[in-house]
């Protein structure tokens, strides 16, 4: 695993990121999408790169049998404490699980940090191997323009311009610690379905999680005042092609052919 990526996650901040502030929108929209596309509980869900178990926790509470695999020892330790979740160390590109052993496989983080396309396709191919025929594979990606928008929103674009502009051109973000992230690959909206297809998962559909709402200066107030309406509005436009490139995060979903 890339040492910069490992150091970033060893700080232990991933759990809090999704439970507080604007990060809650990513969590709630992930729940919204997955609860519509996953098999009904109880299902065998493999959460690959599941971090400290933020998503595994609510999936287990919904009644799913959740196995989590993550390359960060701290995350495995944290996720192991969650009732109904089993966790072990592992790599998305070489999953330590039998063929067709899951009803659904989630990759809600691995594609972020696999900067080489071959590695991303390999991880998706492993997910396709691990899921049963007809089962669901869902993977999250970060939008190509997320760093640009985030730095503009925070008034920090000028200071980070060289790094940000390089990410727009190549897709590879070499973030500094001051940027609040680490090395990552930022997808163009049309890329994930092609990577799915090359991994043997045709017919993928993409869902923008935050749309343009994550750029609103008063997002926190909106979420506190009327969270349900915000989620309904974003659901209505989640697959509009012109908005997928604005969303900070996108989830792409396909079923393994029978």
Automatic annotation (TrEMBL):
Classification lineage: Bacteria, Bacillati, Actinomycetota, Actinomycetes, Streptosporangiales
Keyword annotations: Methyltransferase, S-adenosyl-L-methionine, Transferase
Superkingdom of the source species: Bacteria
Keyword Plastid tagged: no
CDD domains named among the record's database cross-references: AdoMet_MTases (cd02440)
One Pfam family per UniProt: Methyltransf_25
Entry-linked PANTHER family: METHYLTRANSFERASE, UBIQUINONE BIOSYNTHESIS O-METHYLTRANSFERASE, MITOCHONDRIAL
InterPro entries, sorted: Methyltransf_25, SAM-dependent_MTases_sf
Domain called Methyltransferase: residue spans: 45-135
Name recorded for this polypeptide: Methyltransferase domain-containing protein
């Amino acid at each position: 695993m890339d040492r910069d990526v490992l150091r970033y996650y060893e700080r232990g901040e991933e759990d809090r990121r999704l439970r507080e502030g604007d990060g809650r929108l990513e969590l709630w929209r992930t729940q919204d999408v997955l609860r519509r596309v996953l098999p009904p509980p109880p299902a065998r869900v493999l959460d690959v790169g599941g971090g400290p178990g933020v998503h595994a926790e609510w999936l287990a509470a919904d009644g799913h049998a959740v196995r989590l695999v993550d390359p960060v020892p701290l995350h495995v330790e944290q996720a192991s404490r969650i009732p109904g979740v089993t966790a072990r160390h592992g790599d998305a590109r070489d999953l330590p699980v039998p063929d067709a052993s899951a009803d659904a496989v989630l990759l809600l983080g691995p594609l972020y940090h696999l900067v080489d396309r071959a590695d991303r396709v390999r991880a998706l191919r492993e997910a396709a191997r691990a899921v049963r025929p007809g089962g669901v594979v869902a993977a999250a990606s970060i939008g190509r323009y997320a760093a640009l928008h985030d730095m503009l929103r925070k008034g920090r674009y000028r200071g980070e311009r060289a790094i940000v502009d390089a990410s727009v051109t190549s897709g590879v973000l070499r973030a500094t610690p001051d940027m609040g992230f680490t090395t990552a690959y930022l997808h163009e909206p049309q890329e994930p379905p092609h990577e799915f297809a090359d991994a043997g998962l045709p017919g993928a559909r993409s869902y923008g999680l935050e749309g343009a709402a994550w750029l609103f200066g008063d997002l926190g107030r909106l979420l506190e005042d009327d969270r349900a309406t915000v989620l309904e509005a974003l659901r209505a436009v989640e697959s509009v092609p012109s908005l997928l490139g604005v969303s900070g995060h996108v989830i792409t979903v396909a079923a393994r052919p029978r």
